[in-house]
Design brief:
Strand content: 25-35%
Largest sheet: 7 strands, mixed
Number of domains: 2
Helix content: 25-40%
CATH architecture of the largest domain: 3-Layer(aba) Sandwich
Shape: globular
CATH class of the largest domain: Alpha Beta
């Protein structure tokens, strides 16, 4: 694991630590004491790296109020995340806005399942940590395409009573999907009082379909196309029940049983071709679009 760091300096927006978590995933820690002092699980920050950069949202994966730092985990899959990942320790991000969005509802529900896929684990970790601190029994179900792509495994174990793993190729845990494990646990009479689903939209949709017949309260963390992050542009609109909501100010967490996932997934595909083209030009690869996967 590559790691570089410098002593925190009183310079807002400065990158103070950078880690390569695996072949495709990076973590940066930024000195942003105002954001760190107010951050709560489920909230996000809008980044603008340079003057001519676009604004991109990233959910907080951790923060340290004493050190005044916030951390984000991401993959370089488009121009903006490649640009963010190119920053070195000591360099500064031009603009940060946050914490934005409503924090997760945290209380003692009883037994809580935290189901996360891929980069969703970065979002799930502070939620699981807070649920455990509130007195819940926390059952975490983590998924990834292969063993090499799992992140925050030790951290999730530390805040969970039980942890289950699934991988698409069977190289870690059960071969298959996180939804398969959740279905099995429900059949084994795990009495979940709430389920938090955090990951790709298709995963969260399947989780909602599994919990709906059992009337298990299920929360989905949505990641639609977002521009300003403050409710003015309307780009992050989602349909919840029969109402239009803005994920940035009304969410990002919603009742998963009310989310129109089909519409959400259709909207997320709008700019995949453009993102692939920019990514290919910047990274000189032609990877399948990985956009909007937390």
């Amino acid at each position: 694991m590559l790691e570089t760091s410098i002593q925190n300096q009183d310079k807002n927006n400065q990158v103070v630590e950078k880690k390569q978590l695996n072949s495709v995933t990076k973590k940066i820690t930024v000195y942003a004491p105002d954001i760190a002092s107010k951050a709560q699980p489920g909230q996000f920050v809008i980044f603008k790296v340079h003057e001519d950069s676009e604004r991109i949202p990233l959910t907080l994966s951790s923060w340290d109020k004493e050190k005044g730092t916030i951390s984000h985990i991401f993959q370089e899959v488009g121009y903006s995340t490649i640009e963010l990942g190119s920053l070195e320790v000591g360099e500064k991000i031009m603009n940060l806005a946050g914490p934005l969005g409503n924090p997760s509802e945290i209380k003692n529900f009883g037994t809580a399942a935290v189901v996360c896929g891929g980069l969703g684990t970065a979002v799930a970790y502070p939620v699981a940590k807070a649920l455990k601190a509130a007195g819940n029994k926390v059952i975490s179900i983590m998924g990834a395409r292969s063993a090499e792509l799992f992140i925050l495994e030790d951290e999730m174990r530390a805040v969970s009573d039980e942890v289950f793993f699934s991988s698409d190729d069977g190289t870690k845990g059960q071969k298959g999907f996180v939804s398969d494990i959740l279905k099995t646990l429900i059949a084994k009479n795990y009495n979940f009082n709430i389920v938090f689903a955090i990951g790709p939209p298709i995963m969260m949709s399947v989780i909602a379909d599994i919990t709906r017949p059992h009337n298990i309260k299920t929360i989905a963390s949505l990641n639609p196309i977002m521009v300003d992050g403050m409710g003015m542009c309307g780009a992050c609109r989602v349909t919840i029940g029969n109402e239009i909501k803005f994920a940035c100010v009304d969410g990002p967490e919603f009742d998963a049983h009310q989310v129109n996932f089909k519409e959400l997934m259709q909207r997320l595909k709008c700019y995949c071709d453009e993102e692939k083209n920019v990514s290919a030009e910047t990274h000189k690869h032609g990877e399948t679009c990985q956009c909007h996967k937390h």
